[in-house]
Design goal:
Blueprint lengths: L1 H28 L2 H25 L2 H5 L5 H28 L4 H8 L12 H23 L3 H26 L4 H27 L7 H37 L1 H14 L3 H16 L4 H27 L3 H8 L6 H27 L4 H53 L10 H16 L1
Helix pairs in contact: 1-7, 1-11, 1-16, 2-4, 2-6, 2-8, 2-9, 2-10, 4-6, 6-7, 6-8, 7-8, 9-10, 9-15, 10-14, 11-12, 11-14, 12-14, 14-15
Length: about 450
Amino acid sequence: MLKKIFGTFGTRVLNAICNFITLWFGTHYLGAEAWGIGGIVLLDVSLLLIGVEFLAGSGLIYFTPRKSYRTLFKISYIWSALVVAFYALIIYLCSLVHIDFTQGLGRLFGMRAEFIPEGYHGMVLLLVFIYSLHNFNLTTLLGKERVGTNNILFIIQFITQMLSMLFYIFVIGIRDANAFVYSLLTGYIVGYLCGLTQIWPYLRDESSDSITQTVKEMFRFGSIIQLSTLVSTLNRRLSLLIIKSFWGNAQVGVFNAASQVSESPKMIGQSIAMVQFSRISNLRDNDTAARLTLQLLKIAMVLTAVCIFIVCIVPTSVYSWLFTKDFAEMRVVMIALAPGVVFMAANMVLCHYFSGVNMPKHNLFGALVGLAVTVPSLYLLIPSFGMVGAGISASLTHLATIIYQWIVFKRINKTSNKELLITKEDMVMLKEAVYGVFKR
């Protein structure tokens, strides 16, 4: 398992490098406003994917070892098509009666801003549909504990995104947000097609389960997970909407860039949590799952804290030189976001524990606790402190979430706070893992 974690971490490091290259070219050749629009489009895709993932999301990792693969395939594809068609119908009906659906959503949150940027409605829906198919391949391969194959498909996706954006900028000559948005679509399509070659053998299995019964189980499990994801995404989406409402797209672009750089250490928590979920979903012993989670929780938080500290001590002049003077404010925003990045790493590990042992309701309750902190803190901090206020709000939100999750984890597993201290056993585990990676 440790080798899988480090293999996944290596993939995330490569992804971070590609994201940095993409960010550099985006800030230099597209500008702050275009980069802000691209960031909003990507976040909108994430938000609309929640509807798809009520049945066809990360819950597939849990169900893949337990259900017929062909049954999961049919349910996921049909559900993805139905959800995207529903989104398209709602937007179309609103246009017939001259109602701007996305502006209405913006007003729902008290913003003077569109929810989906003008002209990107169709593209957002297409991205949602293609990514939902690509994500089916990724999640079910994790359910089969084929972590290495999942990593390779992810590498294909993000490298294709980076190279295609450079192609759109320098060969096609696109110098607006479309260069980034088209690169997302290209990466999703290529990743999906490559993934089909890997899941094809499982589709030959003739076994099947009751579709009706499977849908009920998947919806019961997935609805809780996705409601928590919805709340978490809204936490982030609200900050961008409020920044845009008060300060404009350019400031959204700067905040988005700062978030990308400061959250790069979260790849540690992502790597650990991904393998952890895959492993726990195939376990039947909750005590083993809890011990594994506690050990991984400590390692994730320590390594993330070290990485974010390094990111924050880089001088402002370096960021200004790297991303142009328009992005000079990035460093102070990243300092405000830094505590939240460490808390986010803990949140990922605890979330995947609760999902892996079939208690995803605590992820939802934790996200609601975070939302209760997000809403007042955003409205209090952003008007006065701008992007820094949004960063502080994000850190407070993640802190509130993990406090709730840790209280529940302690109660379920009879754990004490002192067990969060790093032990000799934890250090040995980390040392052996690092040695094993370099020995290979």
